[in-house]
Amino acid sequence: MSATINDVAKEAGVSTASVSRVVNSFPSVSPEVREKVERAMKKLRFVPDRKAKSLATGKTSSVVFLTSYETLFEDPHKFAILSGIEHSLMRYKYRVYFLQVERGDLTPLRKMASQKEMDGLVVHGIEVSDELLGIVREYALPTLLIGEPKEKCSLSWIDNNNEVCGEVAANCLLSHGRRSFLFVGGEVADNISCSRLLGVRRVLEKKGIGLDEGDILSLEPVAIQAEKAVRKALSQRKYDAIVAANNFLALGALRAVQDAKMKVPSEISIITFDDYPLALYTKPKLSSVSIDVHSLGLSAGRAIVEQIRHPEQVVETYIAFPRLNERASTRYDK
Fold it and tell me: Rounded distance, CA 226 to CA 27, Å?
């Protein structure tokens, strides 16, 4: 039979109220009493009832990770971020629940919030809507977004600094003597691609290298489109460096370069971002600037705990953990 709070109180020689205060982390407990209770709990293998603890403190020690079902298998970073969040929250004795919504239906979230089944909310891969903001306000939910919102809102957010990643990519190519750049990016609405372009431009401008309109391709993230667009660009101008905003665009660029009979990397270098899903499997393998999204998750975990403890606090910050993985598409061994 499991030990009860009465058993712990008897073993420690204190009142049940004192045991309750220790279990619920109340500050008004002397070090001596806390030590006696903790020793008794360990001896009796006493495990506090989470529901009872929640009723006593008004807290669940739980955080919900809200994401979209539609992008579940499209985003390679999602589970790495979730892993980082879980690892971080464990240090604060919080649990994380994975909640998916379909087609923007926030009914499951509203139900959990109304039943007070969470202390905080982390949102990833979901557009900030009036409904989401309404739920957060109605239930006074400490909330953190993974990714800067497209429009200004009252929610805290944390994001990777993709401009810094662009700077790392440009500096890598410059270190190999490259001076004529082609940027193969996503569509204008692709904020990540635009941020990476800003970083590339910033570095190049310091070296007196400009990017003309024709040096920037805005495409859907489809390899065949990138292949056609890069083939046309190479027929109009000689480039010795290509920065591709993602792996699919990089694959198309590599095909176009090979069709043009240009040697990689002796004549032209190619660099992309992240290793997923193709960088390690092309020939030659693609150099990449990768972001440690697990560390982003760790930071998000710390940030949401701060939000829970200090609801008035607002977090709006970029975090950069870029890592250059240089491979055969840029590294030329003479």
Answer: 61
Over residues 141-159, the pLDDT tens digits come to 999 999 888 888 889 999 9
| CA neighbor of 136 nearest in space, from 109, 175, 161, 162 | 109
For the stretch 121-133, pLDDT in tens is: 999 988 899 999 9
Reference 64, options 89, 37, 44; nearest CA is 89
Task: Give, for 25, the enclosing helix (H) or strand (E).
Answer: none
Whole-model pTM over 0.90: no
CA–CA dist 95, 89 (Å, integer):
7
A 10 A CB-CB count for 117 gives 13
Task: List the structure tokens of 295.
Answer: 């560390």
Domains of the chain (ranges plus CATH)? 5-56 (1.10.260.40), 62-161+294-322 (3.40.50.2300), 162-290 (3.40.50.2300)
The single residue listed with the structure tokens 């360990």 is 42
